[in-house]
Amino acid sequence: xxxxxxxxxxxxxxxxxxxxxxxxxxxxxxxxxxxxxxxxxxxxxxxxxxxxxxxxxxxxxxxxxxxxxxxxxxxxxxxxxxxxxxxxxxxxxxxxxxxxxxxxxxxxxxxxxxxxxxxxxxxxxxxxxxxxxxxxxxxxxxxxxxxxxxxxxxxxxxxxxxxxxxxxxxxxxxxxxxxxxxxxxxxxxxxxxxxxxxxxxxxxxxxxxxxxxxxxxxxxxxxxxxxxxxxxxxxxxxxxxxxxxxxxxxxxxxxxxxxxxxxxxxxxxxxxxxxxxxxxxxxxxxxxxxxxxxxxxxxxxxxxxxxxxxxxxxxxxxxxxxxxxxxxxxxxxxxxxxxxxxxxxxxxxxxxxxxxxxxxxxxxxxxxxxxxxxxxxxxxxxxxxxxxxxxxxxxxxxxxxxxxxxxxxxxxxxxxxxxxxxxxxxxxxxxxxxxxxxxxxxxxxxxxxxxxxxxxxxxxxxxxxxxxxxxxxxxxxxxxxxxxx
Length: 485
Ligand SMILES: Cc1cc2nc3c(=O)[nH]c(=O)nc-3n(C[C@H](O)[C@H](O)[C@H](O)COP(=O)(O)OP(=O)(O)OC[C@H]3O[C@@H](n4cnc5c(N)ncnc54)[C@H](O)[C@@H]3O)c2cc1C
Fold this sequence. Notes:
With 485 residues, the protein is α/β, with parallel strands linked by helices.
């Protein structure tokens, strides 16, 4: 691949070969002990939209029927939690993967990391629910809309007034202390970033996101009460993630955090951005993944880019359409919350291109080295769109602002042409011991109906090339030198 200018992303693809029933059982077994809506939120039932509190809780809860997260997913492998020891082994695998990238790609490759491999996924669900409730509360406090949330903030005086409107009984000294605690940048205002600031400041699940319970007037965690074992597991998960990132840093290998199902995404994205803030001071060392099939995609990018600009770190993004569409739609319908996916394929395409353009605008505004995006797509129209955008904005392929990625064995005609034309292009390589990678690869081959259309196109291109070589007598293709292109 490297002869054609194509680089590698190693994606450890070992998947447990378990039945659907076993997967559903595992999901239920892994449920956290306290499964209630936090007291501090129910106490706000007069102020918060009760429908949104209830649906948020349902959305981020475990549902046995959707416990087999592999169903309908072809381009992503799935981890099932079995023990802390297994998660330690997964962290070791990521470290080995980083070593392999360091030695085989001359520091130019990436390692893909799935956070669900590093801890009990149900803890990510709880963290996601907490983030969703906290945002909802912040939106109500500031009277903002979802679109404007990133620009909303509230001063100490306004907060006091709003809480009084809510009928709060807490004394003003406690509120003062609370305000100081959540105003992380001490600028006299609490904004959405202060509100959501976690990883840097606390590893203890229970003390995160304390809010005032309007009924009792006491500070209470927004997060449900976890057992000491669950608290320990959460702290283990954070530690594994940090260890993997530190190891990557020490080997000079970049990592990308994969996006997964929407009910994990608030937590995954929050952690990925916390890593970016820590490690992206001098460039795009960590990439977070954004899924354009989500109605919220542009808003999510806007929020994270806003933080990156404010705190002057590099915003690194892998932009995909999203791999879990059918599963997401079915779950939303059956569990009873709004479908998070764009209504049509065209709407997803439009969202993809709007996100890409917005990132290019941010690059224009912040300058070289502050923003980068990986166009992770097989869609030829999108690749063309990105190439044209680069021309329009005078972004050279060598500047590492926009690069491309495709799955190994998919759309090689696009990847290899991009590589030979000097664009930065990567292939996602499933990797691992053959017999353990087979469950994932065979599932991908069996379920891959949509992608087969693209394979047919590749087959017809291969025939054309074969005929061309037979007719011209040039049986072995020689890679042109860069200056021949
Ligand atoms: C390098 C790489 C890394 C990836 N990493 C991730 C990851 O971390 N997380 C992740 O979720 N996925 C990931 N994917 C998979 C990706 O999200 C897509 O599923 C896959 O690439 C197909 O999309 P496309 O742009 O290549 O092609 P296309 O065939 O043009 O798009 C198909 C996609 O469009 C969307 N879509 C299709 N029909 C509709 C509809 N009716 N309404 C709304 N949207 C629709 C769906 O997202 C579908 O997958 C990755 C893909 C690549 C190439």
